[in-house]
Amino acid sequence: MTTPALRVSELTKDFGGLRAVDGISFQVEEGEFVGLIGPNGCGKTTTFNCISGLLELTSGRVEVLGQDATGMRPDQIQKLGLTRTFQHTRLWREMTVIENLLVPPRQQFAPSSLLALLRPGSRRAEKKRLADAYSVLDLLEVTHMAHNLASELSGGQSKLVDIGRALMSSPRFLLLDEPVAGVAGPLAMKIFQNLRDLTSEKGIGMLVIEHNMDFILRTGVDRIIVVATGRILMQGTPDEVRENQDVIEAYLGDS
Ligand SMILES: Nc1ncnc2c1ncn2[C@@H]1O[C@H](COP(=O)(O)OP(=O)(O)OP(=O)(O)O)[C@@H](O)[C@H]1O
Ligand SMILES: [Mg+2]
Question: Which end of the chain is least crowded, N or C, by CB within 10 Å?
């Protein structure tokens, strides 16, 4: 049996008297593209914060790419190969889009990437990084904004550049928090398809938070984990989710 890229076991997170995440367990395989969906305040972002080391777990265990990551700092988890984006984008507003891509993600600075920035790199390495940055912009269909300041981007464009920054760290596993919020429907679908291709081509595991059930069911994700008030309501393929009675009652009742 292969080791999953991400394994979360009995994860619980309390904020004082509030239990935001209530003993959830799931795993994501390498190369798998999985959606995490649930209503506002059900604990999706908190789950990401616990996995990526920003919050201490109340109890439970997180394994990233075969290693116990429970209690590790964000930069240590990043070093294992896990990168995340934030629900509210964190771009360097005073820098251009392409410059934003060339700086490692904030709060996820691995010491080695800091050293790499300070050390005068070879010209060839710099050129390769620049070419990588442009292909990431192509993938996200924002190449035309390469030389605009991040402060000039729309909300949706900022989200896309933020995904680009995550991709630039050559992750082996990606957590994306509502990556296409504010991105218009057809482009959002295209971005999901591009991310899907990336998981297959590079074997990256991806866990993506979405709040729109109808949208996630049409994106071609491999599996969907449905969360309600800190617990997993069900997890399965899009077809299984569509046919699940609990999901129908909670989400799809009208259709
Ligand atoms: N740092 C914090 N301190 C106290 N309570 C928090 C904190 N972060 C989140 N919460 C609470 O935990 C619960 C889950 O929040 P979380 O942000 O994980 O929800 P979410 O599923 O990501 O929601 P949304 O879809 O609105 O982004 C909410 O009730 C929220 O108020
Ligand atoms: Mg959230």
Answer: N
> Cβ distance 179 to 191 under 8 Å?
yes
d(CA 133, CA 247) in angstroms, rounded, equals 39
| Tens digits of residue pLDDT in 8-41 | 999 999 999 999 999 999 999 999 999 999 999 9
- Report the first-to-last Cα separation within the chain, whole angstroms: 40
Which ligand neighbours the alpha carbon of 86 most closely? 2
> Three-class SS of residue 237?
coil
**For residue 215, what pLDDT is reported?**
93
Mind listing the domains of the chain with CATH numbers? 18-252 (3.40.50.300)
Confidence class of residue 107 from pLDDT cuts 50, 70 and 90?
A: very low
What residue type is 157 in one-letter code?
A: Q
Nearest CA to ligand 1 atom 1: 15
- Rg (C-alpha) for the chain, rounded Å, is 18
- Ligand 1 atom closest to Cα of residue 211: 25
CA distance 222 to 34: 6
Read off the pLDDT of residues 173-222 as tens digits, 9 standing for 90 and up: 999 999 988 888 888 998 898 888 888 888 899 999 998 999 999 999 99
Pocket of ligand 1 contains residue 13 by CB under 6 Å: no
